[in-house]
Write a structure and sequence with these properties.
homodimer, 480 residues, alpha/beta, FAD/NAD(P)-binding domain, Flavocytochrome C3, Chain A, domain 1, 9-stranded mixed sheet, 4-stranded antiparallel sheet, 29% helix, 20% strand
Chain lengths: 480, 480
């Protein structure tokens, strides 16, 4: 790959001009195209694959929306921008981006309505059986830890996972609708097109791109701006080693082959700062069935480390970042059930002592943990981790068993959350906080709202939300 | 501050020329100057403060050296480059830089001899009473977790903390000697000089600097290269928020006011990649006196989380990254001693149950933890965390007490470990792995060997080691 930036004086001729060039047609890129064309801009969209969709199309399709959407209201849930803001501020890592979370929460109802206008259908039925994408075509789920400790005490819980109306994985339907809108928008879509360089002028402003199409390098001038929506870097092993090495131990990487960090690297080469690059979304789905939350998760020291009813994104992060990827779900004869996500049985025993030995846990450790847990569970409380009373029963019916939840032997689904630093209008920012003129970004090419404490739907939520703002910004700049 | 890079055509005239320009005169910069001048280069060294020294001069002065130095041999310790390599590979985070650790270990004896040649004195006496910088003028200490689990099983333990011969903090003496050598080297030293811009040519090569001296902007051409040794970013709150937010909760930031990330930002602006930016060295010194290791550290759930004889860098990292900054050191009447680093008493009780209540720990949690710990300690083992038998006694003599080791109420000493990605020759690398021509860096402006698992002395160790290589590289390039 050539150097990621090229000076405008080294470009012989522009083979194409447009107001806005969008790089990548996942959900963020589609949103950027739609907003830019809606503002009257002439748009060229470049997609490396043979068709749009990206990782969004292979996802569960959950969109984090709230503040009192039509679906929330129809399902009988009260929500407000303020409660949504409070939850996201508490659940989005140690340095939440307050400005982004503020505007994302305040304008979330309007963003929901935008999806409806693009033809995305939502069935106003709440799916209560577990959190995350439902197997049914129901439109609303809990997709974070809103109703689990400590978040249930920080903000009034409300489900905010909005799911397009189709049974199972809904990302395909979501992107089908958004891409149909893109087709109808008048934007020119170029597939199998790999943006390899940003063209910069003497002031460092981005004025176009060099893109490889059918083996040929082509130049496109962008009068208003270039919007990078090229995904994250979970499928770039070297970048993971340099920025998020903990994720390397996880088996299932959520992304296409093009989630190789190319958008982030283009932005960095043009002077953008990549931030929060160590953050990942790490899901350890111990449920469904939800009954399995009645078990307890222990680490390699035989010690509990989290409330088992926390959202699977939070559980996975804690297991990887804090427990070195070692976790077992301990169950008894009454609480055992076959997990939907297949997991090996790491050990069984007629007694906890036997199970402890089977798992090679320190002598007495699991017995001590269980003794304390059971004593509290009998009284219906969990003073250590505040698991909801719904899932508190003593584990006292032999035989006992442990499901293997180690990163070595089980499924953890991961993708990267770090990326280019952007303003709330999608402008790529330098380390000094200045905008790189003519350069915008959104989705997992950026560091958005998503951070440790990940809730499903935040990526599609912030990708589309700030993708729209980036597209609008680039279109405004073309007019100016 | 102006834009961090400027094109060479915008520079009206060079007011000064040199082979090598070194930015920052802490230990890394001093090493770069010494090696470049030794290679015959004309060197200008720029220092923002009124004199050299930087954070190195305020440090303990421990230098991580090994593989069989004269001091190690005189003190009766066997060591080899291979054992040093094995320890550092195991103790330097999830993605250790193997190439750097290899050369750092292999050439460590020669690096020790270089210090001696610069006039740094070492007394060949081992200080056994605790790890980290000694209060005496002894020259050798354990400064990592070499002799603690699990590292003692991975590599043959040897102390590698080499300390210049002066009682107490030795960083001042170290820098006095290195700066005297710099003075004698013939390099021009400019103090109160703030490097604000790198000058780049049309190919992106760094060809000089713009530096602010006495309120005036001055230009200096660098024929061979610019070496950035301007420290880390622990005193830049905004950069911490964006890159290492966990460190914000820690009270004592190890650094000068100039550890504001300016070197890293200059390098990024010139196309360098900053990596491992979330990493910090986080020290929680629960000892001396070493007797306090007989206590147990518990988190906010009343649960143990580490072997208390691990090095204080490892203890601090675990407390902050994994326990949300909540830790208490539990002691009984026999194990209590006054800690050298003042700590508040968080609670006392005639029984463990009473102490548990005092600390607001979950009911039964501390009692359960103590019961298990004491049972094992009576048999002289610690199957959970493998603390050495030397520190294993049951805690059973009332009254009981807890020293406050929370980040909120006690001292954690932190500095940043992330920075520019460099080759083993100190060249600054782009995201694609190419060298930015004419740009070198070392010390905490770079991501070096130091990573989670920090051992004292690694920063001065890798700063001087790769600082020398960077200075040599820039000098070579001037000759070419």
């Amino acid at each position: 790959m050539p150097r990621a930036i090229v000076a405008v004086e080294d470009v012989n001729a522009w083979e194409r001009e447009a107001d806005v060039v969008v790089v990548g047609l996942g959900c963020a890129g589609a949103a950027a195209v739609l907003e830019a064309t809606a503002a009257g801009a002439e748009v060229v969209a470049l997609e490396r694959a043979s068709g749009g969709g990206g990782t969004s199309a292979n996802s569960g399709g959950v969109i984090y929306l709230g503040g009192g959407t039509a679906v929330q209201r129809a399902c009988g849930f009260e929500d407000s921008p303020e409660e949504m803001f409070k939850y996201l501020m508490a659940a989005s890592g140690p340095a939440p981006d307050e400005a982004k979370i503020r505007v994302f929460s305040e304008d979330s109802v309007a963003h929901y309505e935008w999806f409806v206008r693009q033809g995305v259908p939502f069935k106003a039925v709440f799916y209560p059986h577990y959190s995350g994408e439902p197997p049914t075509d129901d439109g609303l789920v809990y997709s974070g830890s809103e109703n689990a400790y400590p978040f249930d005490e920080i903000a009034r819980p409300a489900p905010r996972g909005h799911v397009p109306q189709i049974p199972g994985q809904a990302g395909g339907l979501l992107m089908q609708k958004l891409l149909a809108a893109v087709e109808a928008s008048g934007a020119e879509i170029v597939t199998d097109a790999h943006c390899q360089q940003l063209v910069v002028d003497a002031d460092g402003a981005v004025v176009g791109v060099v893109v490889r199409v059918d083996g040929e390098m082509r130049t496109i001038r962008a009068r208003g701006g270039v919007v990078l929506c090229a995904g994250g870097f979970v499928n770039n092993k070297e970048m993971l080693e340099r920025h998020a090495p903990e994720l390397l131990q996880c088996k299932y990487r959520v992304g296409t082959t093009f989630d190789d960090g190319s958008g982030i690297r283009l932005g960095m080469a043009a002077g953008g700062e990549a931030i929060h690059m160590g953050y990942g979304s790490i899901s350890l789905p111990i449920v469904p069935p939800k009954k399995l939350q009645k078990g307890i998760l222990v680490n390699g020291h035989g010690v509990r480390f989290i409330n088992e009813d926390a959202y699977f994104g939070r559980v996975g992060e804690h297991a990887v970042y804090r427990q070195d990827g070692v976790a077992y779900l301990i169950l008894d004869a009454e609480t055992f059930d076959r997990p939907d996500v297949e997991r090996e049985i790491a050990g069984v025993g007629e007694s906890i002592a036997e199970l402890e030995t089977e798992l090679n846990l320190p002598s007495g450790s699991l017995q001590s943990t269980l003794e304390l847990y059971n004593r509290h569970a009998e009284q219906g409380n969990d003073p250590l981790f505040h698991k909801s009373a719904d899932w508190l029963v003593p584990l006292s019916h032999p035989p006992y068993g442990a499901l293997d939840c180690t990163t070595a032997n089980s499924l953890y689904a991961v993708f990267t959350l770090g990326g280019l630093r952007t303003s709330i209008d999608g402008e790529v920012l330098t380390p000094d906080g200045d905008a790189v003129k003519g350069l915008y970004a959104a989705g997992r090419t950026t560091s958005g709202i998503a951070a440790p404490g990940y809730a499903s739907g935040v990526s599609i939520g912030d990708g589309t939300f700030f993708g729209r703002r980036a597209g609008a910004g680039a279109a405004r700049r073309a007019r100016a």
